[in-house]
Amino acid sequence: MRRTLMVMAPLAAILTLWTAGAALAQDPNVPVLTDPTAAVLATAAGIAAVVALITNILRTTVPADAFDKWGPTIAVVVGIVLALLGLFVAPGTHDGNAVVTAILVGLTGGWLSQNANTQVARLRG
User: How far apart are CA 84 and CA 117, in angstroms?
Assistant: First the structure.
């Protein structure tokens, strides 16, 4: 029960921070993310939040030694896949430059999510 609570508290905090922009919006002309959309996958911060949620779920299902070994690699690969998915569902041109940029954004987002997981682990320990 305590382990579940320790996992759910950071997930709830991430979800709260995710939706805080809508609550704090003052100007009606400022675009605010009120619902998760594919546009989130165009930013490293959005990808990091999604990948952190995915890896925190995996952390509870995968053995600890396997997750410690392969967790960062899985996070980076998932980040790249999400960024490419976000690129291809968005309207516009999908040239080589956009693909390389999406790969780099996904790599950065996946890497940033692991830093978030490290901070959560330090907070727990």
Answer: 23
